[in-house]
Amino acid sequence: MADQLPQVLVLRPPPVFTLFETQFSQKFHFLRAWESPLPTAEFLATHAASVKAVLCSGSTPITADILRHLPSLQLIVTTSAGLNHINLPECRRRSISIANAGEIFSDDCADLAVGLLMDVLRKISAADRFIRAGLWPIRGDYPLGSKLGGKRVGIVGLGSIGLEVAKRLEAFGCIILYNSRRKKANISYPFYSNVCELAANSNALIICCALTDETRHMINKEVMKALGKEGVIINIGRGAIIDEKELVQCLVQGEIGGAGLDVFENEPDVPKELFTLDNVVLSPHVAVFTQESFSDLYDLMVGNLEAFFSNKTLLSPVLDE
Amino acid sequence: MENICVLLTYPVPEYLVQKLEKRFTVFKFREVASNPQLLREISNSIRAIVGTSVCGADAGLIDALPKLEIVASYSVGFDKIDLVKCKERGITVTNTPDVLTDDVADSAIGLALATLRRMCVCDRFVRSGKWKKGDFELTTKFSGKSIGIVGLGRIGSAIAKRAEAFGSSISYHSRSEKPESNYKYYSNIIDLATNCQILFVACALTKETHHIVDRKVIDALGPKGIIINIGRGAHIDEPELVSALLEGRLAGAGLDVFEHEPEVPEELLGLENVVLQPHAGSDTVETSVAMSDLVIDNLEACFQNKPVLTPVI
After folding, report:
1. How many CB pairs under 8 A join A and B?
2. Which of A65, A301, B252, B302 is deepest in the core (most CB within 10 A)?
3. Does A144 contact B at CB distance below 8 Å?
4. What's the half-sphere exposure (Cβ side, CA atoms, 13 Å) at B303?
């Protein structure tokens, strides 16, 4: 029966695939490349010549080489919002469609960004550690944090996620500023065309943009110095948007005030200098890791694949901008 | 004013201590309590008490200070002050409302986010090197959930305003319905708990609200329920809360206050579904300055025979 189901290639299983594998397998016949003893290129050459669709996660690179081994490919469905793992020019050249997670993650990502900012300013994780270590009766009150209200928050990348972050922080009395590739019509927040200038005018930066050639290491020493010694950086985008070595140095030397990081340049490796810092909050790339998002993601991935195989419009196509 | 004697009943931030010592002669309770002779010597001179949320002024202390004119609390809550006694003696009582509303409301939402998204556990997960062995688990989304607020005063309303930005549906229980608010009112806290997933405790502590969150409320909230307490530890029946968390009858809790601070029930220290904070709801540099200034302004007004700024009675 599986043979009659539409064929979908999976190079490495995305977490949502593993979680919903039974349900997925009732609808599609999956080619499980990671289970084969053959090296990927050989597996693809042997089994994937007629594959039309690939399901992947944000951490599975879809390189030119892989695409070359998939002559019949018409659709890539990625479980991520980000596209930095996909060779976009090659897809464009071959007219391969891409469907991603669209906006279903925006709430959860925004919630985590706000949570991380709060945690850094109000020392939530550090104070929780303090209590669990039995120190409250011994040392008395924990050191004071910093008020969120009235802070100038610079959002780097005012897309779907950035807008949700802004909406939430406004309710806390923050002043919202932003930098984006282009100024957005109908947005009244002050726009800064230069991320360094944004940093100079902000108490905190929240990184919500995509990782592209332009944004790689965009948050560099100059930007961090502009942000200043009391400044806080929150990153829920991609690790490589920040020059991580420089960030670690700035934190260790007190050049910036603190950081909340859900992403890193070489996940799951995290610079160990950060482990001893109380003004840093660390998170294992979980911005979208909620029951609700994964359930929505399953529905969306199935919906996209079903639409494709019945020649209907994709639910969350990535359109060329 | 340097000869005016002020008794400080609990440690306060250094900024306030310095401001007090510039203006008054300050005695710290810890020093006085261990020195009965000193207490006898100064008891006729003390004209003001500065207390906090942990230690204010009870009947015994008030009785021992015949010249007491004002109790100025470095807190918005005044449950640790014997108001009946103060009223009898014509003693002014002041607190620090408004200046800390934002911080405490921020703290409440921060606690909810940290509890549902397991932020502190995640931080420990990374620091311990566990991430190298596998991904973290799925947690629970905060946006869009149904929240219930016990006490829709200044702080409760500020919590509601923030929660609205997360798409939460909001209901509340209060002594009386607030017609100006658009939120759904429940005259009974059990009904509130039945109809929400995240319960925020934000009311004042009085005889009526002591243990207002008890076994019945916890049962009504249910095994998916979360309790966030930024009020007073005594709002919740703490042993019942602990056993509900241990037995899985409650999904989690974010607690800034406890019945016997700074003691925290030991059973909570090993739980991953709780976030524990050391009564830090208003503990920011900015707000502690604002609260301290308000305490000073209230004291100065009192001793200049002017109306105090933020009287409780």
Report:
1. 176
2. A301
3. yes
4. 21
Q: Are residues B36 and B81 in the same domain?
A: yes
Integer-rounded Cα Rg, in Å, for chain B is 21
The CATH number of the domain holding residue B15 is: 3.40.50.720
Q: Is residue B309 part of a domain?
A: no
Which of B102, B117, B273 to mutate: most A Cβ within 10 Å? Answer: B117
Does A116 contact B at CB distance below 8 Å?
A: yes
**Paired sense of beta strands B274-276 and B252-255, if any:** parallel
Q: Establish whether B215 is a catalytic residue.
A: no
Give the nearest partner residue to A144 out of B127, B161, B285, using CB atoms. B285
pTM of the shown model: 0.94
ipTM (interface pTM)? 0.95
Which residues of B, range 11-40, sit inside 8 Å of A by Cβ? 11, 13
A91-112 as b/e: b if 16+ CB within 10 A: beeeebbbbbbbbbbbbbbbbb
Q: What is the domain extent for residue B168?
A: 101-276
Q: How far apart are CA A123 and CA A146, in angstroms?
A: 9
B81 and B126 in a common domain: no
Give the contacts of A128 (CB within 8 A, at least 6 positions apart): B114, B120, B275, B276, B277
Determine contact: A295 vs chain B, CB below 8 A.
no
Compute how many other C-beta atoms are within 10 angstroms of the C-beta atom of residue A291.
13
Known catalytic residue at B261: yes
Within this chain, do residues B70 and B112 fall inside the same structural domain, yes or no?
A: no
Tell me, yes or no, whether B311 lies in a domain: no
| Eight-state DSSP code of residue A12 | S
One domain, residues B30 and B170 = no
Number of domains in chain B: 2
Q: Which of B232, B235, B238, B240 is catalytic?
A: B232
User: B10 and B59, same structural domain?
Assistant: yes
Please give chain B's pLDDT, 313 residues, in tens. Answer: 568 999 999 999 999 999 999 999 999 988 887 788 888 889 999 999 999 999 999 999 999 999 999 999 999 999 999 999 999 999 999 999 999 999 999 999 999 999 999 999 999 999 999 999 999 999 999 999 999 999 999 999 999 999 999 999 999 999 999 999 999 999 999 999 999 999 999 999 999 999 999 999 999 999 999 999 999 999 999 999 999 999 999 999 999 999 999 999 999 999 999 999 999 999 999 999 999 999 999 999 999 999 999 999 7
